[in-house]
Amino acid sequence: MNQKQIRNFSIIAHIDHGKSTLADRLLEATGALTDREKSDQYLDKMELEKERGITIKAQAVRLKYTAKNGQHYILNLIDTPGHVDFSYEVSRSLSACEGAILVVDAAQGVEAQTLANVYMAIDQDLEVFPVINKIDLPSAEPERIKQEVEDIIGIDTSDAILASAKEGLGIEDILEAVVQRIPSPGGDPDAPLKALTFDSWYDSYQGVIVLVRIVDGTVKKGDKIKLMATGGVYEVQKVGAFSPHPLELSELAAGEVGFIIAGIKVVEDAKVGDTITHFRRPAEKALPGYQDVKPMVFSGLYPIDSADYDDLRDALEKLRLNDAAFSFEPENSLALGFGFRCGFLGLLHMEIIQERLEREFNVELITTAPTVVYRVTTTKGHVLQVESANMLPEAQHIETIEEPFVLASIHVPNEFVGPVLNLCIEKRGVQRELKYLTANRVMVVYELPLNEIVLDFFDRLKSITRGYASLDYEHLDFRVSKLVRLNVLINGDVVDALSLIVHQDKAQFRGRELVSKMKEFIPRQQYEVAIQAAIGNKVIARSTVKALRKDVTAKCYGGDITRKRKLLEKQKAGKKRMKQVGSVELPQDAFLAILKVKE
Amino acid sequence: MSSLYLHIPFCSSKCPYCDFYSLVASQHQVDDYVDLLVRNIAYLHQHSSDPQAFRTIYFGGGTPSLLSSLQVERILTTISQTFELEDGCEITLEANPGTLAQTQLRDYRRAGINRLSIGIQSLDDRNLRMLGRIHSAEEARQAVSLARRAGFDNLSLDLIFALPGETLSILSADLDKLLELTPDHVSLYGLTFEEETDFSEQLKQGTLIACHEDLYAEQYRFLHERLCDAGYEHYEISNFSRPGLQCQHNQAYWKRKTCWAVGVGAHSFISRNWGERWAIPPDLKKYSERLTNNENPARLLETFDRLSAAKEWVYLALRTAAGIDQPAFKRLFEQNFLETFPDAIGKVRPYLATDQGRMAFTLDGWLLYDYLISHFL
């Protein structure tokens, strides 16, 4: 394959700006999909991705395109996720490309993630050209948005393409622009092999499938390859590309994007960011890899039925195979029994994993409230990473507690600036910047404690700005903070799974609100349930769920017997979702009540 | 030995708390309906494998007292011509006080009805108006005395409690008036807000406020004490009787005995195998079509295996004061009751009273019946 005829590109956009729909149109326009396959958002393969309208995993697709100049091209489209939790995937995908299409919604304009992703692309020296999408919307203002892109991002929009992926407008122009504006890849096909692993996943039939960008050299079936970071040596069984169906090729040469299957058994052996080279003629130096992604948010996952523990572990292991950013280790709770402490990139990532466990693996779960990692220095000088309130040492053994801070960038129409600033202050934020991007769009940059973000920041932000705000954040540092452990007692006993780490100034308020929220979520039962919040031994708030006094069907004769029995059976099935803690049955909502506390 | 239920789906008006299938009908339609019942009885006779002898017959509704005594007679004659009636067969008819005349009652008695269940609901006119009843307290009293004069010596009266705004003293006065009528059997129903009734709509809109559950419990205990003091036995969650005058027909339901049912919307239970329940859909037109084509108007609603039968048996038995007869359970299901439901029994233990191999709910247990029984389901 002549390198001059190859283009490698990504589409970057804020979530919901139409990236996946555009990808579908490009597939259709180049004949990659048959009519029968033209389901919405083809590249979002997981049921969950389709349902939530988000992309979770990156995908690489090879498209054949005959340009207006009559030449045939191979376009490698690398689709990327649009949510802040998955920005590391974007960064990886971009490193396999020479260019990116920047998709901006013609009504909504530049949002926080647009900016974050576009800077990532510019940092990697990618050629970026803008597409103003959704011009079919009645509220579309393409000219204003073009100006906004120029003002905010500083890229030339004089030849921005106006498109509507939904209506199929502008698709030809986009394909032409990919060919004309994005440079062809470089690299020497005869040099020693250097292939960058930018994704890998486990397939139960073929073993690990590695997605690579060939930087130098050529790889083909039968080659003996070496993974430079792990040192593993394998024989290539297959090379190919997705079109989007897997297509076996005779070789992959410098500049190309495709997959390698080489009998690798576990994903850990084909680490994303690793360089693949030839065993007999290795490259001298590996390509710069990626930083390992670290989970930032932790929560406990427990099976409702303790007999499901092994199933849960198997399911977690399977998910872990294809998700390096997700971690888990066994955890034991007095209240909930055996479970796992799991680490996630963020709240969306956490929700996705939970939903997949329940849906695909059929394990019913209790999830504890999410927490971040704290750094605790003990009076003896030991430094601990604390991922759960229960790991927090007794107050007298703690010298300092540090909590992670993020730099959050919020884009918002100017009429909402006041409420957004108030929210940031309430969440213990420190203002870094406040900038008018245009006459009526403002960028607010705050340093914020991550633990405030994982609780309810995003929901609150959305509600006070009626959905108009967008948020992006990056990790900043750890800062010393006055944090305390807030315990919840049910009928006098501390329920470890309900303990939280909160800021001292907020402990009183949070405790009070938490017990009253929990009262709403715990159904009345046989006995009275006392809920208390305590810091150390000091009880700061209490509420009571009164015992059930009356729950009886008055009439039960001929025609009632089946109907009322079935009603009771249905209620009972609902109750099974509750976890027995001591003599009290707690529903899932009670464990996440802290997320529902409004300030 | 089995029972027979006849459903009369007609009412002169719809009560705002009732979710039963009922129709407002002309006399002509009632006539047609009686034809259908007669056909349905004939169908039953043709298709039942073994000859039935009825121990109880029950006319329920709706408002069965909308039937004339001639219509009742025609139905009962059809039954006795095709089936055997046991000696002392209990034949109940539910009656609405607003629809009763002296001659009608006498003729019911003559036709063979030997037990009357009068839905007086309350003897307080304000309560009756709230409940949308067509009769007054005076008419209710009248109906009872007419029934006595017509020769009914087994008389049941219904009373609704836990009405919106009803205090304990209002209820107490209502109960006093009821006891003055010296009923042989009393059914006391806490008002329930059934889905898709006017009352549940008003509850949602906030124009009606349901009785607080603490007050409900207090009223229930009060009624229990007063009636027991007056010599009644509290033999099922909502039913009281003078000794020996329990409703035999309803006992059949709670003991899972065979009860055939005719009439639109009616449910049969047949005890063969582990039990079958059949239902006639609440659709008068289809009912008529099916019977005209000599097809079975009922369709199979559910069948049981040993475990599901045992569960339902417990679910029903624990509604009654007799409760679980452990030796009987073992005979029926070939396993020990305590070993079949160890977890459930553990959970409900504080609400169980044990007496010589029988286990029954206490009064507090009955108040939590739905909550507690779900452990067994």
3D structure, described in words:
The complex is a heterodimer of chains A (599) and B (377). Chain A has 599 residues and is α+β, with helices and mostly antiparallel strands. Helix content of chain A is 25%, strand content 34%. Chain A is built from 13 helices and 34 strands. In chain A, a hairpin with a 2-residue loop joins β28 (483-490) and β29 (493-494). Chain A starts with 5 loop residues before the first strand and ends in an 8-residue tail after the last helix. The mean pLDDT of chain A is 87. Chain B has 2 domains: 2-253, tm_1862 like domain (pyruvate-formate lyase- activating enzyme), CATH 3.80.30; 306-376, Arc Repressor Mutant, subunit A (Orthogonal Bundle). Chain B has helices at residues 27-47, 69-82, 102-111, 125-130, 137-149, 168-180, 198-205, 213-229, 248-254, 284-292, 306-317, 326-333, 337-340, 342-348, 363-367, 369-373, and strands at 2-8, 53-61, 84-95, 115-121, 155-161, 185-190, 233-236, 239-241, 259-262, 267-270, 276-279, 299-303, 324-325, 352-355, 358-361. A 9-stranded mixed β-sheet of chain B has the order 7-8-6-5-4-3-2-1-9, sandwiched between helices. In chain B, strands 10-11-12 form a 3-stranded antiparallel β-sheet, with no helix packed on it. In chain B, strands 13-15-14 form a 3-stranded antiparallel β-sheet. Chain B is built from 16 helices and 15 strands. Chain B is 42% helix and 22% strand. In chain B, α1 (27-47) runs parallel beside α2 and α6 (168-180) packs parallel to α8. Chain B is α/β, with parallel strands linked by helices and 377 residues long. The radius of gyration of chain B is 21 Å and the shape is globular. The interface between A and B is medium-sized, with 22 and 43 residues.
